[in-house]
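Researcher: I'd like a structural prediction for the single chain below. Treat it as a standalone chain; there are no partners to consider.
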Amino acid sequence: MPFPDTRLRRLRRTAALRGLVRETELSPGRLIAPLFVASTPAAVETMPGVSRLTISGALAAAERVAALGVPGVLLFGIPDHKDEEGSGAWDEEGAVQLATRAIKAALPEMIVITDVCLCEYTSHGHCGVVRADGSVDNDASLELLARAALSHARAGADVIAPSDMMDGRVAAIRAELDAEGFAELPILAYAAKFASAYYGPFREAADSTPAFGDRRSYQLDPANGREALRETELDIAEGADMVMVKPALAYLDVIAAVRAMTRLPLAAYNVSGEYAMVKAAAASGAFDERAIVLETLTSIRRAGADLIITYHAEEAARWLAET
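Model: Treating it as a single chain, here is the predicted structure.
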């Protein structure tokens, strides 16, 4: 019945009633904290509050978020030396491998997710092998990505997360892991990763800006929602156990569409540019940072994400504990 018989405000009258009928839950257990690991610590100027961390620094950060109820971290490594192949990606003594061992030794219940890509490790900054003509060789890159994934598995990673966007990389990594005794190790595929301008601050943090060209030949066109679903379907068919949409805020429609098409756990990456914009606006006094962060993360959950990878993880977990 219409108004006055139907009054939707009845269930908004008090905080207790609003909580009783709240449709979307946000908790620290839904958050994943990304960490940048390097041999030398350094603040990331474009991302206030974010730094490159040493192994001990990464462990301390993992301990802080674990104490707040955040169940996992996503590790990115910045090597001391780069080469054309990105061989540091599978170095058994690399930053990600060492950090994984340290965190798992101290916090065995912490979920360590490792990003598998070559862009931080290559001298040219691309996510795969580069041909003489400057294009990225998809098939030649698969073996290297699988080698990196295997090194992460041997270090004790709980989840392998390929972010390179090469065709067939989920199948290649699954085959390598299975052949080497890691059949039970799950893969979180960056299934719908767009060639986004929102990644700018990340490239400073990870030292991964391409030396030439861009990544539009392998990352998704921001205009293509249906293609994102095709990418996701293929990653699922190749053996992905979880899938991801990246970025999050400008792609809430894609998150909702992926949620509708699969029962697999779905992650969304609240990326560096989204984080930096909130920090800049809050610093200017434009809005209340706590309120906007929690609203933003709730909107990503409402769109359908089960997990949110976010640089706000630690502070958001603190704020949620206060509510």
